[in-house]
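User: For a reading group we're discussing how well predicted structures match intuition. Take Cnd1 domain-containing protein. Before you show the prediction, I'll give you the sequence so everyone sees exactly what went in.
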Amino acid sequence: MRTMVVDKKGDPEAFYLDKLDSYFLIAHLFVNLSQDIVTKPSKCIVPAFKALTAAIRFLIAMHVSLKNTEREVMKDMYDTIGLNVSRFSQVITSLLESGERTPQDVKLRLFNLMNALATPEEGVKHVCANTQLMDRLAIFLDSEDQRFRLAAIDTVLYLGRKPVSITVGLF
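Assistant: Thanks. Here is the predicted 3D structure of Cnd1 domain-containing protein, as structure tokens, for the group to look at:
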């Protein structure tokens, strides 16, 4: 899902600067909901998953919109939110490792979020630096579920096109 978020005038930079506070609120919501789902089985309810899905979709759109801004503006924006990327990769790992607790559609969206986080080159470093996440990605390459296998392949191909990339060895 490669969606560009824009305001009424079609200016992603203006939208992004205006919505930076919203970004941090949604990022905080994403992290907290994910931690609750992983650690507290009583929190695994449909409204929590709907909110988590909405947060993931918003974060994907915001990170993909970085690609559509001017290079120096993108760098400034990414420096502002870059700290979240490494935290997000930890949270994504936890959700992917949560087994049946996290619905499959949420897990599939997490692959899109990984791609979105790696949209700027700086993001690839943060995503690939998490060895547990890369291990989880490699496990999904061998998944029996074709949807997960294709999502993992797409993510590996996307990360592999970046200057700082991963190497996947199949044994």
